[in-house]
Amino acid sequence: MRHLARASLLVITLLINFVQGILIVGPKHIRAGQNYTVILSSFESNTNERNLLLQLDGLSAGGKKLLHLGQPARVQPLSNSVISFPLPDSLPAGSYKLSIDGQNGFKFHREADLLLAASTTTALVQLSKPIYKPGDVLQFRVIVLGGDLKPPAPSVTATVIVHDPQRNVIRRWTAVSLQLGVFEEQLQIGTVPLLGRYTITVTVTGANAIVSKTFDVREYVLPAFEVAVQARAVPLEKHQRLNLTLSARYYTGQPVRGVATVELYLEDDKLDQRRVVRVYGATQLELPFNEHLSVYDDSQDVRVHVAFTQDETNRTIYKEQRITVYKLPYRVELVKEQPEFRAKVPFDCQLRVRYQDGTPAKGAAFEVKVEGAYTTDRRVAYTSDAVGVIKLTLQPEASSESIDITVNAGSEELLYERISKREAGKAFLQVKLVSDVKIGKPFKLKVTCNEELSFFMYYVVSRGAIVDSAFVQPKKVTEHFIEIKAADLMVPRSKVIVVTVAKNVVLCDFVDIDFEDLRNNFDLQIDRTEIRPGEQLQLNMRGRPGAFVALAAYDKSLLQYSNNHDIFWEDVWGVFDKFYSVERNEFDLFHPFYIVPNMPYSIKRGELVELQFIVFSNFPKKYKASVTLFSVDNQTEFIGRPATETSYTKSIEASPDTGVPVAFLIKARKLGEMTVRVDASIEPAKDSIESVIRVVPESLVKREMISRFFCHNTYQNQSFVLGLDFDRKADAGTRKIDFILTPNILTSVMDNLESLLSVPTGCGEQNMMRLVPIVLVLDYLTSIGSADKQLTAKAIGLLRAGYQNQMRYRQPDGSFGLWEKSGGAVFLTAFVGKTLATAAKYISEIEPSMVEQAFDWLAARQHSTGRFDEVGPVFHRDMQGGLRQGIALTSFVLIALLEQPKVAAKHRPVIEKGIDYVTRTLGSIEDSYDLAIATYALLLQKHSSAERFLEKLVGLSTVQQNGTERFWARDAHGIETTAYGLLSFVLAEKYVDGTSIMRWLVKQRYTPGSFPRTQDTFVGLKALTKLAEKISPSRNDYSVQLRHAGRREEFRVTSQDIGTLQHAQQGVDETAQLELHVAGIGFGLLQVVYEYGVDLRNFTAQFVLELQKSVTNAKHQLQLEVCSSFTPQLSDGRSNMVLVEVNFPSGYTVEQRGQPITGATKHNPIQKTEVRFGATSVVVYYNSMGPERNCFTITAYRRQKVTLKRPAYVLVHDYYDPKLNAIKMYQVDD
């Protein structure tokens, strides 16, 4: 017998006496928008009709009435009466109860508390992949379901939030509309995001979070083949060994050849043995344990770790597999027809015996000991039947109180279980499903009771409501069969509850009814299970008219990471007890004959490189194959062949057993991207592939830029002559020139939003390059009322990605640090805080509380004098180093506070104290950097002494070019200093004077979109934009003529071209001088970008850099020890942030899995390691560097054969003062 509460029903029973009684049954939960149904049953024939009043009431915590519904009920003898309460669409939290009162003289009163279901909606989330790389696009689908498992009402909206591993909000979609209950979107993952586990959370209108799903973001490489480890037989303790099958196959099924290193751990970190074996597709391996393994429980896991290295590519894949070792070969289950036995009544049961892999153990011998069923204990030998079952019929004695069953195999005990005796006079009820279940057809139930049944009631419960019921009157039997029609409302799972009264006791039992053929049937078929690249796959779908169908397809190889991203059968049951079928179809991308390339990411010009390809054939016999490599656009030179040949053909024998490698020795003729095209053919088939290899110069590439601007308020002509300053030692053939016409200061920024800097952006300050220019662009587009929705959407998308990347540097206390776990920095928190405060106007993910917390943290760091000092790592010494009374950092923090009105109002005492500290230092400020930042802060605050500061600042400036250019000369940070000076001129409304500063600044730009460093770009672009807003003419209407090397090209610009860059269509010939002639009205930037290569040996070192290399493992492994130190002008001086860039010889890469750096010195720890350019380069970050030796060892592996290799190099440089550097070449012998 089972208690009714387990079936989530409420039972209120009045038993006046045996001949007069009523049973009332209803759900324990009420749900908004659904009917609440109560069943009243009278099980006495000799009574009159009963009248009852049912009331449903709800009260808030404060006593406010939330609900009041009433329904009368008339209950006839030996029948059910069904009462339904329609509930409103929304029900607030409160106390709810059901009251039942007798009417018309019938005295009856009962109350029962009801529970309000927390939500009438649920959801499922489906992702496109289980794991994403930085820069990937995440696609997802949210399916929201109402309480009836259908799409919710059209008024229901969903809010979707993505959190990063530190619970920062990365993306938010607020109150989005649903299409038939479905919301689909995508998220651009940041290029340098916080790696780890992210969470998508879904909430719906008026509810808390109803579902969430996680996904991983990390660097990974999808291998072309998979490695598997399986036990050939179930391992047992007595074996003391593992018999394994180790396989390595391409996802197309072809075998892979290589070497596997197998490690066996009997305990988590205890290595039992290591074996090295060769593998070709698959091999069998026996591992006898060196140490004895004792299995104390039923089983114990051991760990097998495999490192498999492919012969052809030298690539390594790691696989770890836990294998269970069992104590015994069998598992036994006791299956009983009744939970308890009755004295002197035969008790049938059976022992179900299975091997540990789940298969039936047929013909297995066991000893079964039975205690308590007979006058003496019995031990009987049994043998399991063909399905692994041993049937038992026990004969309990009158004195039996319990029966103990023990099953042994030899000396090992497999099972011990006790069966209890049913109390005398105790009634029981049982219901069983004895037929199949099909929608629209009746299913049969068997009801059994140890007392004669004169009546019983059944209730069909589905999705929390009673959907069917009946009052049944058998003819005083102990068994009765009933049939119930399977209706749509019962899908997908229902519970049939049977209730009767025997000996004044309510008895009940229930059975679950599962529907395999669902109401919204859907069938998906694909026309074939193998498909060739480029072919179409036909999907045949059949379902209910008007059904919403959502499809997902992904590479099966992704499942080696996880399948958490998708919706599977168990997910559906877990959300709402299975409501529709999810169809999964698999197909293989099949090609009977194909080529797999194995090529380097990049090579150096002049190197001899072996390009390798692997040819696969799935045909049953061997064929002679022709493989041809083409010189596309004469970019490739074939070694050992005539220089005029445009293709090179080799013959191989294509085998069905394995891939056959073929290699071509080539040399690249030109810099840039070299197209590689290969054709392969056999008699019945052919294949062709095309890919790109980057050809880089053998020397260091230097990039330069010349900029001029014009601002014509009336129609006029102006000419410019631009000379290109190529280094005399530039390598021949490396010069490239481009001309760019920009009609607005920010046009080039808008055009290059995705690639603003050519230097690394691997720390919390450098990463701001992915935020600051985009915020400036959005501010500018807003100020001019731009209607360019596409550009605005692009900028907002990139802003979200930049914000996402920046959140990795947020510290637990709300500050921002240079590294992920470095603790907060005053300078960086001020920089990030003011940027995010502005960016919050454009993306909702930036929560006001987060910005407020950052500024509160800053305010708490102010000294009583008003000064701010850095508490984090010092990487920008002029700003953070505490030099010159800390004026620069204090002024910078004040600027961050003053630029945000709400922040300034909250922290006014902090600002006033800081301003007072700065103004007291005017007489002692001699450095133009400090003075420029302080002047801008005072002008922002409109302080009375701002004019005196500005006068002193102007006196420190340098004027050149006949007064047309003004700047502030400084060994470092001259651009940043001059930009603050321009910002001060704009605030002081000295617009005309500011144009001379603007003219100098535009000449300093590093690329068309930025300046050399983060702070240069941040302040420089802001200053140029602020002045351009004030002085730019209201319209553009001009032409520009470019003359070079005897050629001419004309450009036309109108006011419609505000976001359009114009480049020289045919490029610019190699020349030392360009002429530009402008005619018309408007504003424009004339920019010439040029680059050239310089031999690394011509650089002068400012650091000490030492390299020590070793090549091992048959020259497949390169170990490079790098030691560097800074040579300061003063004995205790240190550099700013230092980057050590290690570039590898062509054909070598580091493993992207794990840490490539080992043996690093501890006194000045490495802060970050960044793998770049297809693992061909690694950047190592230090906070700073002094005269101490900073060493580390880096390991790379040869992936391709390269001869006549050009030297590789290591570069160490000061990030904020890049002229402080050292470069050293090294070479790996052929």
From TrEMBL:
Keywords: Disulfide bond, Glycoprotein, Immunity, Secreted, Signal, Thioester bond. It is found in: Secreted. It comes from the Eukaryota. Residues 429-561 form the Alpha-2-macroglobulin bait region domain. GO terms for molecular function: endopeptidase inhibitor activity. Residues 1135-1226 form the Alpha-macroglobulin receptor-binding domain. InterPro entries: A-macroglobulin_rcpt-bd (IPR009048), A-macroglobulin_rcpt-bd_sf (IPR036595), A2M/Complement_sys (IPR050473), A2M_N_BRD (IPR011625), A2M_TED (IPR041813), Alpha-macroglob_thiol-ester_cl (IPR047565), Alpha-macroglobulin_TED (IPR011626), Ig-like_fold (IPR013783). Heterodimer of a TEP1-N chain and an TEP1-C chain non-covalently linked. Forms a complex composed of TEP1-N and TEP1-C heterodimer, LRIM1 and APL1C; the interaction stabilizes TEP1-N and TEP1-C heterodimer, prevents its binding to tissues while circulating in the hemolymph and protects the thioester bond from hydrolysis. Mature TEP1 and to a lesser extent full-length TEP1 interact with SPCLIP1; the interaction is induced by microbial infection. Residues 1-21 form the signal peptide. Binds covalently through a thioester bond to the pathogen surface resulting in pathogen clearance. One of its GO terms (cellular component) is extracellular space. One of its GO terms (biological process) is immune system process. This is TEP1-F. Its main location: secreted.
